[in-house]
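Notes from the 1:1 (GR / supervisor)

We went over the backlog. Supervisor wanted to see one worked example end to end before approving the batch request, so GR pasted a single chain during the call. The sequence is below; no edits were made to it. Supervisor asked that the structure be written out right there so they could see what the output format looks like.
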Amino acid sequence: MYLGLLEERFPDLDCCGVIVCGQVDESLALACKMSDRVSLMQYQMQLVLTDYNSG
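Structure output shown during the call:
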């Protein structure tokens, strides 16, 4: 829907979308395969703690 709204508002631009999520569910992956205008990206996070007083 969002891409449709962008295309209507900016008809001279080529619009594409990126879905970013922490976990990809099978139905989302299959839905994204239906369009080459939507990319699916999965993020990974890492928390690193350093001792502030020792450095």
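Supervisor's comment: The radius of gyration is 18 Å.
Batch request approved.
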